[in-house]
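anyone seen this seq b4? input:
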Amino acid sequence: MFSLNRALQKLSIVELSKLQKINVRFKAKIVDLPQIGHGVSFRRKVHFPDEYTVKPLEVTNLGGRDPKTGRVVVNGIGGGIKHKYHWIDWVRTGPKEGPPQVEKVIKIIKDGCRTAHVALVAVGDRLKYILATENMKAGDLICTSCNIPRIPVRAKEGDAHPIGALPMGTQVHCIEKYPGQGGVYVHAAGSCATILRKAPNNRVIVTMPSKKEFSFPEVNMCTVGRLSNVAHADTPIGSAQKNRELGNRPRSGWWQRKTGRFGRKIRKPPPVKDINPISTPRAERVALTYTHPFVHTNQPCFHY
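predicted toks r here
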């Protein structure tokens, strides 16, 4: 034991650190997992160029994997038909004074990377993509203006104006969150928001498709009309093969709602329950029926 203690004393600090680094064979590598549902999509990665272009962009399908670590984050994504991405110009800018800027719709196309249709618009010598409205067609002229007049503007579908320039009850989409940021809210097919009322401090209350009310500054830009492809939400997928073409992997099959064999059982509803007001029972009245007088005795008892 004495010799072992002498040997340990002779070891230096460097040699002890080397001995500690030996047993690292099965040490796990700590990787920060990404947060799902915070504005990050694990379905595809779009390769954006430096400048805006109407040329369809190349897309890399992630299949539910994190692009940094390569680990599977979402299990329900994978496969599907590859679609190229059409770059949408979310910022609609126009003159702040004078007549509005006139734009012409060239054609309406379908985009496999989004639910609503896409419109190719010409502005002077420049082309750009915007989201198409419900009744928009090739050859239409749409206007864009950043002016807020004293009298509300009677706009038509596809026109872009500040929220404060439109009358109450107007259906809008592609609403800016901050002035100049570009359309952030209401992008899904067939959806629209409704301008409800004006509020103090130059703000406008808008009812979103989720029936929630948002308050925006009146200078935020928006596009008038309801988005195209209205029947998207009511159109069934139809088959499992079509669902795989959309890029959705099958579930485990454990939960079957129709049969309930592997999941929740289908039982008949309980009988109708009558809800009646609670009635307090009346206290029973006790009456004495003995009519003879009591007799006092020497013993502690009574004779009846």
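The longest strand covers residues 101-109. The mean pLDDT is 83. kinda curious what u guys think
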